[in-house]
C-alpha cells in the first residue's frame, strides 16, 4: 500500500469540478466503468454491443478481450471512460484454470514443474493470437495448485499482462512429457478489478437500469457502474492544485509548482495519474523523476503528460494570463 506524501498545502474551490461519486447520474454513466462478470458464450464485443443498447449510449469498450468460452472479469468503459481502459493494458492479471493432463502424473512431479514455471518464462503467442508470433518474456508471480482430480488440475495463476494461459498449460504438459491442454478458464483480476462487491452480472445491470428508468431509483445503477477513477486505482497518483488543472487539460506537462502531494512508490519512467483535490482523474503521463526527487524538487517539469481525460474548461484558466 502506497503512502501519500504531502508536498504543499492548498484547498479546492467547490465551484469547479465535482467529486466522482457526486456526479449527476447521466454524467456518472458516461464517465463510468463496469466490473463485469462475463458469462460463457458471447464474445467480448457482443457484450459491448449489448450494454451499449441497454444503456442507450454511443460508445462502450472493454479492457482485455476474453474468448467466448472464458468467464470472469471483463472491465467495461462507457462513453468517455473507454479511453481510460487503455491504462489497464499493462495491468497484472489473475486467473483460475482447469488444465487437463493427457496422462496421469505424480503430485511431486506436478509440483516440481509448476515451481519451474514461475518467475520469468518464455512464451510464443499461439497461432490465433492477434499479435506477432515471436518469443517473449513474461513474468509469473505465482501459480498455485488448488486441487487435482485424476488428470484435471485446478490452479490459480497471477501473471504479467500478455501471458497466454492456454499456452502456459501446453508448455506445462510438454515439460511433464504427458501433454496437456486448458479445459476451463476464469479471469479473477485485472489491475484494480477483482471479485469483490463491485463485480456484477449482465442481469444485475439490466435490473438496475430498469429501476432507474421506470422508478427513478439511481442507487442500484450507481452500484453497478463505478466512476472511471476506479479503473486507475492500481497506478501511482499525483494530486495537483486547481490552478494547474486546465493547463494539463490543454496538454501541458506537469511542473513541480502544480503539485500538492503524491504516492511514495513512483519511479522514473512509471505511468502515473494526475488527480484533482476532489479525486477527479485529469490525465496520465510518464514520470520523469522518482517520488523522492519530486518531493525535493523546487522547480522543473516532472511528468510528461500523455493522455488527457478531463474536458477543457472544467477548472478556470489561470495560465497564460498577464
Short description:
The chain is of the alpha+beta class and 322 residues long. The protein has helices at 25-30, 44-55, 107-116, 165-176, 202-215, 219-224, 242-249, 291-296, and strands at 4-6, 32-38, 60-62, 71-78, 93-101, 119-123, 136-149, 152-159, 180-190, 193-194, 226-227, 237-240, 254-255, 259-263, 271-275, 281-287, 301-308. The strands form two sheets. Strands 2, 3, 4, 5, 6, 7, 8, 9, 10 and 11 form a ten-stranded mixed beta sheet that branches. It has a seven-stranded mixed beta sheet with strand order 1-14-12-15-16-17-13.
What does this structure look like?
Residues 236-310 form the PUA domain. The active site is at residue 67. Its EC number is 5.4.99.25. With 322 residues, the protein is of the alpha+beta class. It has 3 domains: 4-18 and 235-308, PUA domain (Archaeosine Trna-guanine Transglycosylase, Chain: A, domain 4, Roll), CATH 2.30.130.10; 31-89 and 193-229, Pseudouridine synthase; 93-190, 2-Layer Sandwich (Alpha-Beta Plaits), CATH 3.30.70.3190. It has helices spanning 25-30, 44-55, 107-116, 165-176, 202-215, 219-224, 242-249, 291-296; strands at residues 4-6, 32-38, 60-62, 71-78, 93-101, 119-123, 136-149, 152-159, 180-190, 193-194, 226-227, 237-240, 254-255, 259-263, 271-275, 281-287, 301-308. The protein is globular. The mean pLDDT is 95.
Amino acid at each position: 500500500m502506497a503512502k501519500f506524501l504531502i508536498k504543499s498545502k492548498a484547498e479546492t474551490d467547490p465551484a469547479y469540478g465535482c467529486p466522482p461519486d457526486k456526479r449527476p447520474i447521466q454524467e456518472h454513466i458516461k464517465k463510468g466503468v463496469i466490473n463485469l462478470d462475463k458469462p460463457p458464450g458471447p464474445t467480448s464485443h457482443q457484450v459491448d454491443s449489448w450494454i451499449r443498447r441497454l444503456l442507450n449510449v454511443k460508445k462502450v469498450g472493454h479492457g482485455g478481450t476474453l474468448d467466448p468460452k472464458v468467464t470472469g472479469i471483463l472491465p467495461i468503459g462507457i462513453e468517455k471512460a473507454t479511453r481510460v481502459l487503455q491504462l489497464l493494458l499493462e495491468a497484472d492479471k489473475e486467473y483460475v484454470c482447469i488444465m487437463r493432463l493427457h496422462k496421469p502424473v505424480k503430485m511431486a512431479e506436478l509440483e516440481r514443474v509448476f515451481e519451474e514455471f514461475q518467475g520469468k518464462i518464455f512464451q510464443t503467442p499461439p497461432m490465433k493470437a492477434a499479435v506477432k508470433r515471436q518469443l517473449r518474456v513474461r513474468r509469473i508471480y505465482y501459480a498455485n495448485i488448488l486441487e487435482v482430480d485424476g488428470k484435471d488440475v485446478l490452479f490459480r495463476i497471477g501473471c504479467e499482462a500478455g501471458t497466454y494461459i492456454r499456452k502456459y498449460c501446453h508448455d506445462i504438459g510438454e515439460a511433464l512429457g504427458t501433454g496437456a491442454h486448458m479445459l476451463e478458464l476464469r479471469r479473477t483480476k485485472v489491475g484494480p478489478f477483482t471479485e469483490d462487491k463491485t463485480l456484477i452480472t449482465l442481469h444485475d445491470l439490466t435490473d438496475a437500469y430498469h429501476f432507474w428508468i421506470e422508478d427513478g431509483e439511481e442507487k442500484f445503477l450507481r452500484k453497478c457502474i463505478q466512476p472511471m477513477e476506479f479503473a486507475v486505482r492500481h497506478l501511482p497518483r499525483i494530486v495537483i492544485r486547481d490552478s494547474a488543472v486546465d493547463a494539463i487539460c490543454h496538454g501541458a506537462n506537469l511542473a513541480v509548482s502544480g503539485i500538492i502531494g503524491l504516492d511514495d512508490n513512483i519511479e522514473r519512467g512509471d505511468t502515473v495519474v494526475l488527480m484533482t483535490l476532489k479525486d477527479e482523474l485529469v490525465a496520465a503521463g510518464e514520470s520523469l523523476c522518482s517520488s523522492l526527487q519530486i518531493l525535493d524538487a523546487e522547480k522543473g517539469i516532472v511528468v510528461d503528460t500523455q493522455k488527457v481525460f478531463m474536458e477543457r474548461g472544467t477548472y478556470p484558466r489561470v495560465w497564460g494570463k498577464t
